[in-house]
C-alpha cells in the first residue's frame, strides 16, 4: 500500500517539497492512517504538518473523546494539533440544513480558517478508492452534471492552497491492514453501520457486489474519474471558443445568442454552452435550477415557432425572437425613455444608435430613405420627442391611406421583441408619430419644397448593437 500511495502522489505531483500540510483527522481509520503515513513516509517533503480535528458535538462525551484521542495521538508524535468544538445542531436548525450538510459546512469553515492561519499549501483528507466508487455511483443515481460525475478530485483549489486526497487509489481494506500493521487503534463511528444514510446503503449493498465482480473496481472508477475531468476540460475549452462566435452581445446581466449558429454547434457543446451562459449570468447558480430548465431551453431554440419566452429562477428571462435568443433579468427588460430633441446636435439612444438633428434654410435634395426624415416646422407641433414604444402605437404611413400599428411594422421588419423595447420613435408635441427611424416614415414628412426652414433628422444605427 505504501508504495502505491507514494507512486500516486508522485504521478499527480500532489506534494511539493518544503510545504505546509494540514491533515483533517476525525480519529477514524482513514484519517488516522493518513496522518501516520504523511508523518512517517513523506517526512522529507513537508516543512510543517498540522493535524486538525472538528468535534461536531453530536454524540456528547463520545464526540469529545474522539477529540482527546486525536490530541493525545498528536502529542505522542509531537505533531502540532488544532481543534474546534462546534454546535452543529444549532447551526443546522438556524440554517435549515440536513445534519450531514451542516456538519460539512461547519467543518470546512474551520478547516479554511486553519489553512489561512498557517498559510498552508495543502489540506490532506482521508478519502479512499471505495469512497470514490460510492460518490460516483451516488451522483449517477441522483443525477449530476459536468465534473460532478467524476466524483472527488485528486486535487482541487481550497482556501490559500489545495485539497489533496492521497488515498484515492487504495481501498478501505488496504487502510484497515495498514492500521493493523502499524498498531493504530482508530475510533469507530457507530453511525457508519446504519443504513440511514444513502452513502451507507451504497457501501453495504452495492460495493460488495462490485468488488466481487472485480476486486480492482476502485482503480477503474478512479481512471474513469480522471478521464471525465480531462475530457471535460477539453470540451469546456471548445465550448468557450464556439460560444464566442455565437454570442452577439455579452454584458453583465444580458446575453444575446444567434440561434442558427448555436444549433450548428455539436450537441455536446450546446448543453455546455447554455451552462456557460447560466454560470456567467447567475454567478451563483440557484439550487432550483435543474436539467429540465436546460432541456426546455434547448426545445425553445429548436422549435419552429419564431418566438417564445421562458422564466428561469431568480427572475432570469429567456426570450426567443426569430434568430435571436436573449438572456436577461426581468427588471431590465423594458428600458423606457422619452426625451426632447429641440436643438441641433447628436442624440445618443440607449441602444447605441444616434439621431442627429440639423436646421436648414432650404429643402435637402439628396436626402432619401428611412434613415432620414425631413420636417416642415409649420406642419408639426414642436418640440419633437424621441421615446420608446407604447401599447397601441399607430402611425399614418407616407404614401398610404389609413394608419398602421407600430407593432406590425416591427413584425414586418422582423425586429426582435427585445429590440422593439428600445427602438426609438419620433413624435411631435401632439403625440403624432412622425418617424420610426430606419423603418418607416409617416405622412407628416415635409412635401413642400419652397420653405426657408426645415429640420432634418438622421438615424445612425449602432453597428455592434444587438438590441
Ligand atoms: N471531524 C473531523 N475533523 C477533521 N477532519 C475530518 C472530520 N471528519 C472528516 N474529516 C476528514 O474528511 C475525510 C472524509 O470524511 P468522512 O466523514 O468521509 O470520513 P470517514 O470515511 O469516516 O473517514 P475517517 O475514517 O477518517 O473518519 C476524513 O478522512 C478526514 O480527513
Task: Describe this structure as you would to a colleague.
α2 crosses α7 (172-181). The protein is α+β, with helices and mostly antiparallel strands. It has helices spanning 2-11, 29-41, 60-77, 88-95, 99-118, 129-142, 172-181, 198-213, 217-246, 259-263, 267-282, 291-302, 406-412, 417-422; strands at 19-24, 46-55, 80-85, 122-124, 155-158, 161-164, 247-250, 254-258, 307-312, 316-321, 324-329, 338-340, 345-348, 354-360, 372-375, 385-387, 394-396, 403-405, 425-427, 433-436, 440-441, 454-460. A hairpin with a 5-residue loop joins β13 and β14. The two termini are 62 Å apart. The chain is elongated. Adenosine-5'-triphosphate (ATP) binds next to α2 and β2.
- Helix % is 25-40%
CATH architecture level-2 label of the largest domain: 3-Layer(aba) Sandwich
The CATH homologous superfamily of the largest domain is named HUPs
* Share in β-strands: 15-25%
CATH top level of the largest domain is Alpha Beta
**How many DSSP helices?**
14
Number of beta strands: 22
Q: Could you tell me the CATH topology label of the largest domain.
A: Rossmann fold
Using only C-alpha atoms, the radius of gyration works out to 33 Å
Total discrete domains: 3
Describe, in short, the structure shown.
The protein is an alpha+beta fold and 467 residues long. The chain is built from 14 helices and 22 strands.
